Amino acid sequence: GSTIGILGGGQLGRMMALSARYMGYNIAVMEPSKNSPCGQIADHEVIATYNDIEGARELAKLSDVLTYEFENISAETAKWIEENANLPQGSDLLLTTQHRGTEKKAIENLGTKVAPYMLIDTVHDLLKGVKNIGIPSVLKTCRGGYDGKGQYLIKSPEDIEIAYESLKGKGQLVLEQWIPFELEVSVIVTRNQVGEVTTFPVGENIHINQILHATIVPARVDEEVIIEAQKIAIELARGLNLVGTLAVEMFVTETGEIYVNELAPRPHNSGHYTIEACETDQFEQHIRAICNLPLGSTQLLKPSIMVNILGEHMHKVLENLDKLSDYHLHLYGKKEAKTGRKMGHLTVIGESIEECMSKANELGIWPELK
Ligand code: ATP
Ligand code: MG
Ligand code: MG
């Protein structure tokens, strides 16, 4: 059979691999550490850093088609792969989304709103930025941040210096206006090489300490907002020449205005619910897109809630497994249960969101979902 080569060995790679294997493909993975979540289940493991062109060459030799689950591959390596191997996704979108500045510009160019922002190189820029953008605002590193790492919330003028001191030396920064959102949603959009596009049902995302905690589907917003969110995702997919999967994180204000927060050019944590709740899941859809297959139906089968299991929850979840009959448990095969580390997730499906919610709350591990 054909082999799919995945750059990056984390849980997204693992779930891509599980889907691809189910479809009959073999799996090769490139990842710096042995026995990674994806490496554990792959047919071939290439142990190499993401920026190692020799490693990429070895992965390409083992594979018929390549994809990535890890976003921070260097431009040089991404270009090498695009030119010398079969990477249907290409490297343009990957490189655009690696920097919050180029990402925001691309979104704006396609006519979609982002929070007012300013790129920051010096403390002088930051003082000027805060003057223009106001308080509260948030200072972020342009590259490499995830789970709220590399961000500082500016709540008062006294925070300006501290924010700058805590992030300086981490490359270019961006100051964003804090959007007083009513809720956060995300749309997972997939496009294949012949231009077929699908979106998954809009998910409502609850963050705790800037880490995704839960995704509730369908999102509890007006139908117009649902339609607009999906329209934005499709416009971005077309405008950015997407091949594969793109997650679009958005803020929805009280008046139903939508701002795009950020993009992830791959399957996304907020789309894990699709594994049980949709006709085709985001990982299968991604594999279909990069393998030049027709896309599947994204129909929602039942309302669902996905809850992340972080390191600090792991013990309690395992202790309470007897209460988990109605859940689908996914563990990522990570050894060390560090605080804040994504170890797995639970998905509950039901006849209504209320039913899913009361089941999720039964466990008593997390703050109550409301
Ligand atoms: P990840 O990639 O893991 O989603 P990240 O580190 O890239 O996270 P962001 O998505 O930029 O971080 O921010 C994390 C969360 O912080 C957002 O989901 C949102 O809850 C809040 N947040 C970030 N920027 C803003 C903003 N401008 N206005 C309001 N809330 C914000
Ligand atoms: Mg991010
Ligand atoms: Mg985010």
UniProtKB/TrEMBL annotation:
Catalysed reaction equations from the record: 5-amino-1-(5-phospho-beta-D-ribosyl)imidazole + hydrogencarbonate + ATP = 5-carboxyamino-1-(5-phospho-D-ribosyl)imidazole + ADP + phosphate + 2 H(+)
Keyword annotations of the record: ATP-binding, Ligase, Nucleotide-binding, Purine biosynthesis
Span of the signal peptide: none
Pathway(s) annotated for this protein in UniProt: Purine metabolism; IMP biosynthesis via de novo pathway; 5-amino-1-(5-phospho-D-ribosyl)imidazole-4-carboxylate from 5-amino-1-(5-phospho-D-ribosyl)imidazole (N5-CAIR route): step 1/2
Annotated GO MF terms: 5-(carboxyamino)imidazole ribonucleotide synthase activity; ATP binding; metal ion binding; phosphoribosylaminoimidazole carboxylase activity
Domain ATP-grasp: 104-291
PROSITE patterns the record matches: ATP_GRASP
EC number of this enzyme: 6.3.4.18
Annotated binding of ATP, by residue: 100, 140, 145-151, 176-179, 184, 207, 261-262
Entry's Gene Ontology cellular component terms: cytosol
Matches recorded under Pfam families: ATP-grasp, PurK_C, RS_preATP-grasp-like
GO term, biological process aspect, one: 'de novo' IMP biosynthetic process
Family matches, as InterPro entries: ATP-grasp, ATP-grasp_carboxylate-amine, ATP_grasp_subdomain_1, PreATP-grasp_dom_sf, PurK, PurK_C, PurT/PurK_preATP-grasp, Rudment_hybrid_motif
Record's subunit section: Homodimer.
Cited function: Catalyzes the ATP-dependent conversion of 5-aminoimidazole ribonucleotide (AIR) and HCO(3)(-) to N5-carboxyaminoimidazole ribonucleotide (N5-CAIR). Catalyzes the ATP-dependent conversion of 5-aminoimidazole ribonucleotide (AIR) and HCO(3)- to N5-carboxyaminoimidazole ribonucleotide (N5-CAIR).
HAMAP family tied to this protein: PurK
UniProt similarity note: Belongs to the PurK/PurT family.
Protein name, entry field: N5-carboxyaminoimidazole ribonucleotide synthase
